[in-house]
Amino acid sequence: MLVVVALAVALLAVGGVALLPRGTDPGPASAPVAVAPRDQVAAAIKTLVERVERLPGNWTAWAELGAAYIEQARITGDPTGYPRAQQALERSLAVHPDGNALAHTGLGALAAARHDFAGALHSGQTAVSIDPFKAAAYGVVGDALIELGRYDEAYQAIQRMVDLRPDSGSYARASYTYELRGDLGAARELMDAALEAAPGPADAAFALEHLATFAFDAGDLDRAKSLVDDGLNRLPQHPPLLVARARIAAARGDVAAAVADYRAVVRRLPIPGYVAELGDLLAASGDRAAAQEQYDLVRATATLFTAQGVDLDIDLALFYADNGAPDEAVKATETGYPKRPSVFGADARAWALHSAGRDAEALPLADKALSIGTKNATMFYHRGMIRLALGDKAGAAADLTEALRINPHFSFRHVPLARAALASLGQ
After folding, report:
1. Tally of CB atoms within 10 A around 144
2. Rg of the Cα atoms in the chain
3. How far apart (Å, rounded) are the C-alpha atoms in residues 18 and 20?
4. Residues 230-257 pLDDT 10s
5. Position 74 pLDDT exceeds 90
6. Local confidence band at 39 (pLDDT 50, 70, 90 cut-offs)
7. Which DSSP letter does residue 174 get?
8. CA–CA separation, 390 vs 359, rounded Å?
9. Most buried among 194, 289, 322, 408, by the most CB within 10 A?
């Protein structure tokens, strides 16, 4: 089966859980997996540990154990399993150094989870050279290439993955490639295919959450809520679906329900992106003290991820820029952008420079962020505010209007600022 795509999806922010606030990088949109409930993954890890203790030369079990630790981190948002994953995968290679595409694929996924996309590309390409029919390895390669801004090569990798294994995971990646280039109709169609092909509730929940996001961004809150409810019926308390439900509630003016869902999520999965989004909602509702508690928690949890080898420079730059730390934002992108020169990296660098008053430097990067056709409200908002700071009133009005047209609820923090800026321009 042939699905023609032109770009590739960014995968594995922290094992597939986004670290960023809503409206920034929609990736990494992890391809779904069949086993998601944490008790099942824990049971699988227990079984694999017992197996390698009994048969320490079982290299496939070691590789599977490494992959299970990565999956556990994806579900729990706890990166402390990454060192165990690395040890298991390296043990697999030590036992079976030649022809071990399974372990190299796992190391690629681990590198991507840690945001080492150059490392992920190397491991993924090694796996492909060993086994050119291993679809998962092409997924790792494509995911890395998209973060490195090498879109044409990423297309080829994702295309090959779809050709080899046209399943829920590859359809989800293909969907995201169309989303990146602004073809939302094709993106929805392929995500529908991912839902139809979903072998279990985790895969279905993944697809339904993304379909709900499409509906939410288009302003169809009723459909978005219906899709979220469907997903939660299949996979109760799934954090991304609870966050989607919270966004819908906030858009309808039910702040109490939104805060309750966010708090339920961050108690279970306190990753920086969700915590920052809760902080923005609390600030928008007037509770600055509670918001500051969440912003402090963002920094604390980011320290935990960094300690486990996760590179958060680009991910945190927008948070720093939005929270009165322009020097930190600029410094983070100085080191992070060369390692992740994607359109989202360019957007982060542009916004960091804007926060530091360096708008003339920011504008070319904001242009680059929108250069492949992505219809991202936050990126249009960023460029609009940069243009406004440079005195380009017509350009600012066009970008800010487009941001609100794409999604009138794109940010608890920035939507009021966008509307105020447009009012000041007479729009």
Report:
1. 30
2. 21
3. 6
4. 999 999 999 999 999 999 999 999 999 9
5. no
6. confident
7. H
8. 7
9. 194
